[in-house]
Amino acid sequence: MMTQPDALIARFLQKDAMSFEKIYELYSESLFGVINSILHDKELSEEVLQDTFVKIWNNSDRYNPKKGRFFTWMLNIARNSAIDKTRSKAFKNQRKNHTAEYFVDILEARGSFNTSVDAIGIQKFVDVLEPLCKKIIHFLFFKGYTQKETAEELEIPLGTVKTRNRICIKKLRDIVGVE
Amino acid sequence: MKDPQTYIDSGVLELFVYGTLPEEEMVEVAHIVAQNPVLLQEVVSIENSLLKLASAAAPAQVADFSNLRKYIDVDGKVIPLSRKRTPIPTIILWAAAILLLAGVGYLYTENSKLENQLVDTERELLLQESKTQVAESDLQQTKDILNVIRQQDLIAVPLGAQAVAPEAYASVYWDQENGKAYIDVKGLPEPPEGKVYQVWSLTLEPLTPTSLGILDQYDVTGNQIFELDNPNQSEAFGITLEPAGGSESPTLEQLYTLGVVTS
Fold this sequence. Notes:
The structure holds 2 protein chains of 2 kinds. Chain A is mainly alpha-helical. Chain A has helices at 6-13, 17-39, 42-58, 70-86, 89-95, 103-110, 119-128, 131-142, 147-154, 158-176. Chain A has 2 domains: 6-95, RNA polymerase sigma factor, region 2, helix turn helix motif (Rna Polymerase Sigma Factor, Chain: A), CATH 1.10.1740.10; 103-176, Arc Repressor Mutant, subunit A (Orthogonal Bundle). The longest helix of chain A has 23 residues, at 17-39. The mean pLDDT of chain A is 83. At the A-B interface, helix 2, helix 3, helix 4, helix 6 and helix 7 of A face helix 2, helix 3, helix 4 and helix 5 of B.
């Protein structure tokens, strides 16, 4: 089972370029997916992914393990960069002709191409997941909404957001086979 | 701390991995997780499942790391991002190229127009120059005529029309002293092809014509005055139309004008 590569992260924080490359290999595809679920545009997402990793390298001294996971820190940078991009003219131009709203729409629209992910598993997840789960994960994880914002967006009680999300993620873990 | 399972079931660890908890809560959860291997294990599992889920939403293979290497260097400095994304600059470049071409085309057309105008202007100038020459020579002739007419002791003899050409007239200015006759033929029709006007000095009793000469040096203006020698004791002048080269004696049927010297 994959655990957070603490030694690798430690070397990266010392500005070791080799470990940065390794981190890129481990996390870039996931962050690419997060960015794309916000932008729904391959080229813009590639651009933002590059920005994100430059920021990750540039701001590595700002990562504080006492405030959260290394992945979470990178995730925040990726989401914020993508959200910044949604204010750009380029994004507003392409925005007019896309239909995918949720990350699952992306999965359904194109099928899975990649080899590193259990594509069939994810597809199964998309198929069986109830619509509310898709929406909760979309807002909380992909878009980084707070519980309150998510509750308001989906018009569900604030108290159920956290536990409902827990159930949804459990289902995901069952399907993709993560212990 | 609560029982780990209760803590897990609360769903706070998922939000911790999402990074969507308030900051103080993030710090608190991080602290708790760091001290409890069971919770840490749970966090790792959540994180790994999310990594897989997010990967599936990637629209394509990620770019190779070497693309990124251009923007960082191993000393830890960041090289400023230069966008390789090109659509807008490309459009601008194309637009500039098209504008440039259009500009060149426009200038070429303008240049051709100007060249044509220059040729036209030069032609116009030549035309005006030749007109000026004509006007100058006209003026000179007119001056000559005036000079003749203004001479003192000049006998002016108007020649009146005869039956053959009722509209015709002419004038003879006779400088008796110098034996010159100046013939103004402005009032005569242009002679037909193969014919010339011939000027005659006449004595009346008996009627004796003496040829003064033929007027065969007509120029286009018709303004000129012919200068002929006239040493005769003329009593009248006449102009007849004769075959080219002139005649020995006047053809009276073709007498165009006739005038008698009165003084």
